[in-house]
Amino acid sequence: MFITFEGPDGSGKTLQVQLLADFLKRKGFPVFSAREPGDTTIGEQIRKVLMDHNNAAMHPRTETLLFCAARAQLVEEVIKPHLVMGEIVILDRYADSTMAYQGYGHQNDLNLIARLLDFATSGLEPDLTFLLDIDPKIGLARRQSSGGEWNRLDAYQIHYHQRVRAGYLEMAKADPSRWKVIDASLPPDMVQSKLQNLLLLYLSDK
Ligand code: TYD
């Protein structure tokens, strides 16, 4: 099974991925989790280029291709082998991030991005996607006050981040069987218990 987490910056995805992976392990499931972009030697190098404030001149198409390049490597080197081993793979961001940030955020042609993502992932789609939805103003403020990394992409204007959020909500609405939306402004333990309930419900339907 392949589960992905999506959401605007500062939605608390990383903590929730960790907590859900621990929950599943306690239940006896074999679990593997990773983050995007990165988690391969090549992917981490691409991540540095993407996040570096010195690369403010990066064109949105360059940015799109770099995210897709990191993902293609992750799919082949990490995701597919772990799925083949029968593990539950949980990813902190995947192809939908590119659709939200580079597609909706940068207002690129969404059909073109979809084709590019199909190429980069060789058509591998998640079974279940959790959208941790939050107003980007709250998310970015959270990110800044927590002293977390403030990268080149966080520094895009608020309107950009609002388009990203709206894009996510549109994708979730279009495919409710894959997407489950959770209000990420709730306290983290409540977010986690909602996630666990949604996942158990999903598994019991299978
Ligand atoms: P990261 O520090 O990992 O943030 P987060 O904890 O919010 O995931 O930085 C990832 C940044 O890259 C984040 O701003 C979202 C952005 N991003 C894209 O723009 N496109 C993509 O395809 C991916 C995977 C991430």
Write the layout of secondary structure elements.
Layout: E1 2-6, H1 13-26, E2 31-35, H2 41-51, H3 60-84, E3 88-92, H4 95-105, H5 110-121, E4 128-133, H6 136-145, H7 158-174, E5 179-183, H8 188-205
Parallel strand pairs: 1-3, 1-4, 2-3, 4-5
The chain binds thymidine-5'-diphosphate (TYD).
Numbering strands along the chain, what is their spatial order in the largest sheet?
2-3-1-4-5
Largest sheet: 5 strands, parallel
Helix content: 55-70%
- List of distinct ligands in this structure: thymidine-5'-diphosphate
Derived from helix and strand composition plus strand pairing, the structural class reads alpha/beta
What spatial form do the alpha-carbon principal axes imply? globular
> Tally of extended strands?
5
> Using only CA atoms, what is the Rg?
16 Å
Mean pLDDT: 94
List the helices and strands in order.
Answer: EHEHHEHHEHHEH
Low-pLDDT segments, ≥5 res: none
Q: How far apart lie the N and C ends?
A: 11 Å
Helix count, per DSSP? Answer: 8
Measured by DSSP, the beta-strand proportion falls in 5-15%
